[in-house]
Design a protein that fits this description.
homodimer, alpha+beta, 60s Ribosomal Protein L30, Chain: A, four-stranded mixed beta sheet
Amino acid sequence: MPHFQSDPLDERHDGAKISLPSSKIAFSTDSFVINPLFFPGGDIGKLAICGVVNDLAMCGALPTYLSVAFIIEEGLPIETLGKIVSSMAATARENHVQIVTGDTKVVEKGKGDGLYISVAGIGQIVSKSDVGPKSINPGDVIIVNGDIGRHGISVLAFREGMDFETSIESDCASLLEQVKCLLENNIEVHCMRDLTRGGLAAALGELSQQSGFNFEISEELIPISEPVKSACEIMGFDPVNVACEGRFVCFVPEKDSSKALEIMSTFSSTGFNPAKIGKVDSQTQKLVKIANKIGTQRIMEIPYGELLPRIC
Amino acid sequence: MPHFQSDPLDERHDGAKISLPSSKIAFSTDSFVINPLFFPGGDIGKLAICGVVNDLAMCGALPTYLSVAFIIEEGLPIETLGKIVSSMAATARENHVQIVTGDTKVVEKGKGDGLYISVAGIGQIVSKSDVGPKSINPGDVIIVNGDIGRHGISVLAFREGMDFETSIESDCASLLEQVKCLLENNIEVHCMRDLTRGGLAAALGELSQQSGFNFEISEELIPISEPVKSACEIMGFDPVNVACEGRFVCFVPEKDSSKALEIMSTFSSTGFNPAKIGKVDSQTQKLVKIANKIGTQRIMEIPYGELLPRIC
């Protein structure tokens, strides 16, 4: 309560009574079960707020209100909870979003894993046209806003106690400012999707299914940092399947693609390298085709099961 | 997905894009960690939907959209999940509320307890005046809509394998229709609160704190069924601390109290006995005073810790 100050929360009623400036909203939810709770580049609290803020941003919406629900395992030190809640409050402030309602449950030792957090968010839709899979058109350019795989590799390496020469930090970050900037500059954004569980392969595979079109991707254009590439080789992962928490793909018409890339570049720290990685084809088999350097094409599949470790 | 059919969900985007008929909304969330998942009179799915629908109703709002997030422990049989999800869908339909967005996470065996569900809900505020703790006035009559303690006792008895002569069923139910009926009949509802964790004592204790006034309660007016009374004696519980999931207290001015009671009675099955149990005093020590049959007064305390078992 002291961390999440807001008027609706202060009333301490069964729910928050709030006003929205417009009736067109986006509504999204995610549960966060990441282990460990703290990882290089973030913690479950920052991840939880960024995760829902990003889901709303992907709908062309600015987040306005959040709810948070905690499932705490008996024995979680109160300072650990304090650190996480403080990180949530800071991340919410940075994203100009209020935490207005919440819930706390405690389960017995052995019935949880320290802490699980569920967040739901309401956002105001500000995009002029509909941003979603159904707006994807043949000819659209597919842009990714930076190098992929940092989050998943950083968490897995940290969990397994692996030590690489170059430390890999999670890409966990809010995408709100980038998305706002794209929309404010009248980029005709057809669709956006953040690369969380299942990474680039899952996002593209699902969007191809949902839009009804094939996508053509060039493997060599996908930005991947050297440390992530090496770690993936050692750990046996394909980087396209590895989760990110601050990366998204954006579908824009050819005419806007260079300007969109330029805008995304202004948000990238050195080496993040946003890139055009492919385009939407007019064929309708709903396949994601990926071509390597020598031109050989294969199908990029949506990863399932064991390929989706608990990293969010 | 097949159970929760709705257009926004069908789009399968990162969030649901929805429209609200008005800008005054209520927003609430709860996590449900009840053990066992099925209990006499309900299951975790029905409980989760009713819980959030009731929280919104307590704000004077009609629920319009829900989000659901599942944390599933590895090994939960898919039929069990199916039964619960089907119960959620049915309860949502009964309450005219759409499930528009969601999330599913799986945690390793031993890191959960079968299934945890987090639900968040958006509702349209329909009450003309503000319904909340700050609207409580001295002189308000306090009404409870039925006999207390069924949910907690039913779950605890079932969990402990206790067998009573008369079986006790949970009171788990939606309060939406009752609340709608009170508001449509122009009952001047000042505040409502459902009697979940901590039961009547927690609800009254918190509302007394939040409103700033003392409450005067008559113990003999509190409706408690004989089976619940006996079970409480055997198990060592005070019924006023036991959770309900279909009971609420309602604060109305004297002039509307009989009509409110009459309306609540139409929603009660035989023996539920809604009742006026006390009134708001003008004194401001923020105490809930409870008088027994022979007139002795004691303070009703908000229960903590061990008195709050995992029954929701």
